[in-house]
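Appendix B. Worked example

We walk through a single record from start to finish. Start with the input: the chain for Holin, Leptolyngbya boryana CZ1, length 102.
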Amino acid sequence: MNVTIYPDYSMQTSNSPSSIPSKSMVQSKTIWGAVLTAIASIAPLIAKSITAYQNTGKTDLNDIAQMVVILATTALTIIGRIDASAVVYTPDGMPGANKPKN
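Next comes the structure step. The output line below is what the pipeline stores for this chain.
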């Protein structure tokens, strides 16, 4: 999808397949943000679980459940980014590109 943003923040789009730019997943800031957020969220849970296991010999299932939820939502974010094809716009009155005018 080719998006042109004009000075008044209006947009015009083109959905021809040849106009859709492509890039590697490694170049995606969204994917890197999701991965790094997941790591930052899981690291304290892992440290807490290791400490608890060393002290008690037991694992806290709540920590494991939280890790599963974090990893599942991270995967959903990455899948959403890979499948994304529509233009995202901000509602009227908010800063950023508004809904395209037909």
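Two observations about the output. DSSP finds two helices and two strands in the chain. The longest strand covers residues 2-5.
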